[in-house]
Design a protein that fits this description.
alpha/beta; UDP-n-acetylglucosamine1-carboxyvinyl-transferase, Chain; 2 domains; 5-stranded mixed β-sheet; 24 strands; binds shikimate-3-phosphate; aromatic amino acid biosynthesis; 3-phosphoshikimate 1-carboxyvinyltransferase activity; 3-phosphoshikimate 1-carboxyvinyltransferase; RNA3'P_cycl/enolpyr_Trfase_a/b; transferase
Amino acid sequence: MSSTSSTQIIRPARTLQGSLTLPGDKSISHRYALLAGLAEGTTRLSNFSTGADPHSSLACMEALGATVVHKEDKTIEITGTAGKFKQPSAPLDCGNSGSTMRMLSGLIAPHPRTFTLTGDHSLTRRPMERIRKPLSLMGAKIDLAEGHAPITIHGTPLHAIDFDTPIPSAQVKTAVLFAGLQANGTTSLTEAIRTRDHSEQALKAFGATLNRTTAASGDVAKLSIPGNQTLKAIDATIPGDISSAAFFLCAALLFPDSNLILDGVGMNPTRASLLDVITSLGGKIKVLNVEEHHGELVGTLQVNVSPNGLRGMHIEGALAAQIIDELPVLAAIAPYTSDGITIRDARELRVKESDRIALVAKNLRAMGAKLTEHEDGLVIPGNQKLHGAQIDSGTDHRIAMAFSIAALRATGDTEIHGAESAAISFPEFFTHLNDLCQR
Ligand code: S3P
């Protein structure tokens, strides 16, 4: 993150009206950037994420020998290394991006080079043992600094493993799949809680073979990926980011007469549980024009709100894992619901770009809310009135944006400190918020 901190003042709003096309999905942008860098040929991507994080992935690919060209029509062309990464001349800078660091580790571990991966203050505090462990089982040689970055990888040929993922993490799953793609033998991986499957879809799009089988009980899936595969470049348009859409969907929920249309939103079923949550809370969602591109569903969403106001809900178990990135904004609007929102089984929030449980609790309290903090979540009663306050974003993009939404129904103005962090995933956020809010 840039060291210049900026503050945004958010005034209360009367309603939210209008339409929006969202920048490309952050998760898919990362995966296409990384796989394009490994593939043979030139990949052409439209609607690549404008967030800083996927651009860290692109920069790492350039450092590894891929060519990246930003065209005038905003498409990005990536000419891959045809499976041969070069020795980078400097450490690979992953910026604020855990996705870059973890997924890239799996991608480069089988290449006969020495790589160092670094990141910013937040990233170098995040847990990396979770990728070192499975990659080491495959034969990778990885050094961490007390479980954290900087990471040093002494690239070496890898062999297949059977791996049970101990935590629901798409990034860990991806690190194993990307390594398995290039290992000797067929790697398999089971996940008890299904996490986002963009890597599986992206690998298939780039021409890889990959199988998914589900146990008879239906709740444990096994993925198998044969090794020594090569990838071919693709042309793709990246669907709009549903996690960025979440902020505006939640903003719409706050006003009974709001009307919001979001075009070209990614609706991959492993991400779209958010839409069920919005419906449970009282949103009315119409899904129009659904299409599929490279295994990813894309559609237009129209959102209105029940005149009866917002209901509350419990979010726990698999659902908490599936909407992990949307939990801060759901928590931030929880006091405005009638029955409150309970979030449990979300311990992973403590090791995101910030400790999101602690920061949500601190900032909701600053706005006058009552709540209970648990190690794995928050219990936030409903029917509360909030007032404007000084918000500490902790330079975490999702905290800055979540509290900008809470501020819309508060009395008085709210100051979001570290607002520049929104650019990690959504640089246009404050402009769109201003355009859509009527005051
Ligand atoms: C992501 C997976 C999630 C999510 C992150 C993006 C991905 O992290 O929180 O923002 O693109 O795979 P975990 O895999 O650590 O759960």
